[in-house]
Amino acid sequence: MKMNRDEIIKELHQFFQVRELVCGHVFSKWGERSWQFLDTAYLHNLLVIRRDILQLPMTCNHEGAEQRGLRCNRCELVKEKKNAYLSSHILGKAGDFTVKGLTAQEARSRIRNMANLLPYPLRMEGGVSWLHIDTLPQFGIKDKVYEFTV
Q1: Which residues are registered as beta bridge partners of 98?
Q2: pTM of the model
Q3: DSSP-derived secondary structure letter, 49
């Protein structure tokens, strides 16, 4: 079921604060208004994954891991790039999560098994110890859930 952006953000407040989903630079400048930089399809998928599919606490940015959500031009992971860098993190369409009680592979499996609940196509990074999810459209890919490796 499609929801409007305000409803999605209101429901996400049960599970996340925006400061967990954006880098510290963005939150320091825009505070609660930082939601404006996060893609609606990403937020809706995140809500469904947290509330309906995994039903377990998920952590994005936390002490010692601060660039797992939206990244801005001041973030170290971005500043160190030598070539153009247009990742889904920069575009407000991605997050890297730890799921309490599940390995990243177990979380990816659950999401794939319940893909019919997702309101939008989803990409997941495979072969990593965290759950990367994003809604970056992939040219030529029609799968509801697409797993990629870097």
Answers
A1: 59
A2: 0.94
A3: I
The residues, any chain, with a CB within 8 Å of residue 132's CB and separated by 6 or more, are: 94, 95, 96, 97, 123, 124, 125
Place of tokens 């893609």: 39
- Please give the Cα distance from 122 to 147 (Å, whole number): 9
Separation in Å, CA 112 to CA 52, 66, 67, 108, 143? 13, 27, 25, 6, 11
Instruction: Note whether 110 and 117 are within 8 A (CB).
Output: no
Q: Containing H/E element for 110? A: helix 104-113
- Tell me how far the alpha carbon of residue 112 is from its chain's centroid: 16
Q: N- to C-terminal Cα distance for the chain?
A: 32
pLDDT in tens, 36-86: 999 999 999 999 999 999 999 999 988 778 889 999 888 887 878 888 888
